[in-house]
Amino acid sequence: MDNKHRNRILILIFIGVFMGSLDIGIVGPALPAIQGEFSVDERLVSWIFAIYILFFMIGTPLMAKLSDIYGRRSIYILDIFIFALGSAITITAVSFEQVLMGRAIQGFGAGGIFPVASAFIGDTFPPEKRGGALGIIGSVWGLSGILGPILGALLLSYGWKWLFIINLPIAAVVIALSFYILPQTKGRRDVSFDWWGTLLFAGLVGALAWGVNQIDTNNFITSLSSIYVWPFLILSVLLLPVLVKVERKAVDPVIQIDLYRSFEVKLATSIAIGTGFCQTAIVFMPSLAVVALSLTTSIASLMVIPLVLALGVSAPIIGRLLDKFGTKIVMLVGIAILAMGLFLLSFSASSFNLFIVSGVVIGFGLGAVLGSPLRYIMLGESPPDKRAAGQALINFNASAGQLVGGALIGAVIGSQGGKLAGYQSAYIVIGFLAVIMLLLTLGLKNRSDQLKTMEMNQEN
């Protein structure tokens, strides 16, 4: 295959990945408008974000395996179609339940786009060019994080449904071009899929998220006895040992339990869950701006832009600092900045200027903990044949944090009737979680020990 054809493939899968990743965060500016149209409380509206993440997590391993069995092109087209179908269902929603159904279908399709796109690169690019191509695809997440709030603010002035209408023509073009540009790869019938592991993990995280979301923080002890809380919390606890047992016996497990033998991996994955919680805080910032500053939903969505710009500026710098100082120092400083930004936002959201300042501080803090540092740790701690599994482990834990974090924030805000005090309490809770992340980071290896582990794993 010549370079021109490979570049066409890269551009096409870039568009698909961008579309799927954009819909994770672009919904943030629309939350107040959707909430108002369907007259739902903050507790329920948080599931517009959470249900997308839940089905994204389910779709990722399933679609990756299906692409091995039936070929990349067929499954990539299927993923784009499912994503577009979910968008159409969301656009035509006449009830909040239909919005959630559309978002779930969207997330399921989007979950398969990224792994299938990465597999296409592995199939069609020579080894010496795969790194650069994967880097371009990986940069989509940062790009969508920056453009999501901006695009959301522009489209929101025409109505929240336009955030999803725009997906349909893009999906149609991607599907049409896929038949002509993407090569047809042969499937394999000897591939096994970890159905039980996937379903158990989704059930565990989903049950935990629902149970947490239904807690009344004003009557914490009393609410734990609710039929909507304790059965789901107990179910999540009971599923954990079952999941561990199943994954240890699985031929190709979704969660590589063996990697947890490393204390460093335990710390890194725990911190990844915390980063998911903190990422979720961004989604609710436009809603906070509506309540605290009395802004319209369109203007409120613009209040996230300083944060994502700070995140975009800091992220590429972090990679250089990692090589010089190691992950421990970089993450300690970054998480400390992140915690300060969250606490500042919780206490000063009523001030327009301080809202902007706290957003910038949070953005710089997130830039130091998202993506590169945790992936850097997993690359060092994983043997060469389990590096992909290590990266998947970070993705799963961060997604679980986003899912439960969205449910938690919705519960705290909803318990106080969607008033400013509820948002302040929610950001204080996330701030304290950032402090816990900071304490966990103290246990990470220093630079010299990290390099020794990398050399040992490379030799093995």
Can you give a write-up of this model?
The chain is mainly α and about 450 residues long. The protein is about 80% helix and about 0% strand. It has 22 helices and no strands. It has helices at about 5-25, 30-40, 40-45, 45-70, 70-90, 95-125, 125-155, 160-165, 165-180, 195-215, 220-225, 230-250, 265-285, 285-295, 295-300, 305-325, 325-350, 350-365, 370-380, 385-415, 420-440, 445-460. α10 runs parallel beside α20 (about 385-415), α13 packs antiparallel against α21 (about 420-440) and α20 runs antiparallel to α21 (about 420-440). The radius of gyration is 21 Å and the shape is globular. The model has no long low-confidence stretch (mean pLDDT about 85).
Distance between the termini: 34 Å
Task: Note the total helix count.
Answer: 22
Query: Helix-strand pattern, N to C?
Result: HHHHHHHHHHHHHHHHHHHHHH
Q: What proportion of the residues is helical, as a percent range?
A: over 70%
Mean residue pLDDT: 83
Number of strands: 0
Radius of gyration: 21 Å
State the assembly state of the protein chains.
single chain
What overall geometry do the principal axes of the alpha carbons give? globular
Helix/strand/pairing category? mainly alpha
Largest sheet properties: none
Q: What fraction strand?
A: under 5%
Question: Unreliable stretches, pLDDT < 50, 5 or more residues?
Answer: none
